[in-house]
Amino acid sequence: MMSGRTAVVLLPSVLDGHALSIAPYQAMLRFASRLVPVGGCKGPVVAALLPKGIAIDSIRRLLPGARLRLGILDQVATNEGANIPAFSLASAWEELLSDIDPICCMLPHTIDSVQLAAALSVRRRAACISGVVDVEVPNGVEPLFHRLVDNGNRMARTAARTENVVVTVDWSRCPLQEDAPSIQEETVEVKRLDRGIDGRYRLLDRHAPSADTRDLDRARVIVAVGRGLGKAENLTQIEHFAATFPASAIAGSRGACDSGWIPPERQIGVTGKTVSPEIYLALGISGAPQHLAGMQSSRSVVSINSDPHAPIFAHSDVGIVADMFSFISAWIDRMSSIQKGKAPCP
């Protein structure tokens, strides 16, 4: 590794007008700070592409205390950033970073950023490692990037065999850390870029999700249903059941979502969302590894299934072998009696 190089945190969302999410930014900055011992690496730089006409001071206020490197795209108006595919700007990112030649570029682990990471790694002749959840430099020379494999059941430590690397950081699965990001003296470098948008691509349309899933991120209790739901008409009973728990939300397995009973945005698992509620109630879910990967960090798992051999029971704190609808009906009746004062609270 070359001495005096740095690690760079890339913020693609600044260009498309989305508000900067603090959690992924802090995780990336913390990981980049750990690379300081590598080959005399300097403290991390935060880089962003900006459309023409944007106020630089607004970015400084958004990222106080950061060493900023900002690239201005003169051919992009302030209101046009959201219509540009992230990967079509890979050459502009490369121009912005070319004179500092970073040892590592870090991006948030989103669909757009994963595509950008792949395109940028080709231009930089760099290794590309996605879904990083932790970084360590055990010998002070070679960084090791941790990522979950085998449907989230095992942790792999990966080292790049190239002079630089591009990684995406999956902050939702990062362990809690006590080390603080390395804060350098605030600097701002602004560079007008000659390269712009790769004209071979254009964004045809964006479709907003049909379901708002923010409640899944803050829910204390998640009620998830599988193929045991049987039909969409039974969802009303599930909604009544979920309503007995404060701060609850409803989700589903891939089977329930593929059947059209639960919106696909509420699917839990490898190809869906990852959640960490206090209580995860699995109703009629068999327990495929792909589903378990999305809910295994729940504090407590309660499963209800009529099959005593369902794999979900091996991953549950409480397992109930019963018909889910009979149990739900009895639970709702019991809660109703408690609310009316006709039965003591258990």
TrEMBL record:
Residues 86-190 form the Electron transfer flavoprotein alpha/beta-subunit N-terminal domain. Residues 215-296 form the Electron transfer flavoprotein alpha subunit C-terminal domain. The keyword Electron transport applies. Transmembrane segments: none annotated. One of its GO terms (biological process) is fatty acid beta-oxidation using acyl-CoA dehydrogenase. The keyword Transport applies. Keywords: Electron transport, Transport. One of its GO terms (molecular function) is flavin adenine dinucleotide binding. Belongs to the ETF alpha-subunit/FixB family. This is Electron transfer flavoprotein subunit alpha/FixB family protein. The lineage of its organism: Bacteria, Pseudomonadati, Thermodesulfobacteriota, Desulfobacteria, Desulfobacterales.
